[in-house]
Amino acid sequence: MMGRFGGMMGRYGYGTGFGGSFWPGLIGMIIQALFLVALVVIAIYFIRRFSKTSLHRSGSALNILDERYARGEITSEQYQQMKKELQV
């Protein structure tokens, strides 16, 4: 009493179990995993970008002062005085 489409082949001959639903499910899981990885990468990028910016800004005045002294734009006395003022 299995009929024409019964038995191991399923109702319409496409098979059951892994044959019919495994690949679409696997592809969906891969797409979700890639989406989550992309979100994590984007979050890490922005965290690093903004943390570097804030660190760079806090030390930029001393960096500029060092560069001016290295180029000879200011004397040693001016450099020491400005450095003291910036570190306070």
Can you tell me about this structure?
With 88 residues, this protein is an all-alpha fold. The chain has one domain. The chain has 2 helices and no strands. The protein starts with 17 loop residues before the first helix and ends with a helix.
In brief, what are we looking at here?
The protein is mostly helical and 88 residues long. It has helices at 18-71, 76-87. The relative contact order is 0.05.
Task: Describe how the helices and strands are arranged.
Layout: H1 18-71, H2 76-87
Helix pairs in contact: 1-2
Properties at a glance:
single chain; 88 residues; mainly alpha
Q: State the domain count.
A: 1
Mean pLDDT: 79
Q: What's the number of helices?
A: 2
Q: What structural class results from the helix and strand content? A: mainly alpha
Please state the CA-atom Rg, rounded to the nearest Å. Answer: 33 Å
Percent in strands: under 5%
**How many strands appear in the DSSP assignment?**
0
Distance between the termini: 93 Å
Order of helices and strands: HH
Shape from CA axes?
Answer: rod-shaped
